Protein: FeS assembly ATPase SufC
Organism: Salinispora tropica
Amino acid sequence: MSTLEIRDLQVSVKLPEGELKPILHGVDLTVRSGETHAIMGPNGSGKSTLAYSVAGHPKYEITGGSVTLDGADVLEMSVDERARAGLFLAMQYPVEVPGVSVANFLRTAKTAIDGTAPKLRTWAGELRGSMERLQMDPAFAQRNVNEGFSGGEKKRHEIVQLELLKPKVAILDETDSGLDVDALRVVSQGVNRVRESGDTGLLLITHYTRILRYIKPDHVHVFVAGRIVEEGGPELADKLEDEGYERYVAGAGSAR
Ligand code: ADP
Ligand code: MG
Ligand code: MG
């Protein structure tokens, strides 16, 4: 069992002029392997900032609080060390990796995380199986990472990584954005397979409630203006679908 623990996390974005703009104002969140959490909030509330901060993106400065994975200080780790420690961060805008095929990228990542290269035959079978389940053309494995990927291909590639790398905790930022209904269903089924393995803790970050029709979170956290303002079970997502964020946004405004 693994635990990602975020305590009183305060983060500022570094502006080009060198100024700091505070975005996260004390976030507390605990995600254990086998649990599925959803963070839901309006655009601009700081959801991606939370994901990037845990990922170690240099644009964000941690000004307070802590992030630990099984007690180890994540904020002290390099980006590579975070991945080797078992954190998986699928970014909202994944970067291109020039000249590296999907197959090589995945095998290199797996080798880095496990410390040894996976056996070629088993590995090839696993990759093929995962791609089949996500209804991907086998030729996709030979394409360069993220080069000209459609929105749906990027998300499917994320889920293949999840299935093969078997992280302890995965943060998926806006996995539902840019997907048509069929792709959303296939991608959600992939997330549910990872979830049912019970080995991975999932943190789904989303603006919309639609992905939560396919993936039922154990815990829902409403995120507004850089903090969690309400927590509950899956019924909270249904309430948000009906009522939107207005109520919370008004509350956050008057509290400033
Ligand atoms: P979300 O993912 O919830 O839509 P973000 O984390 O992307 O929110 O952004 C949170 C806030 O931080 C927004 O108000 C956004 O304008 C601000 N922000 C993020 N990056 C920058 C930047 N480089 N310069 C100025 N403001 C930024
Ligand atoms: Mg909590
Ligand atoms: Mg975002």
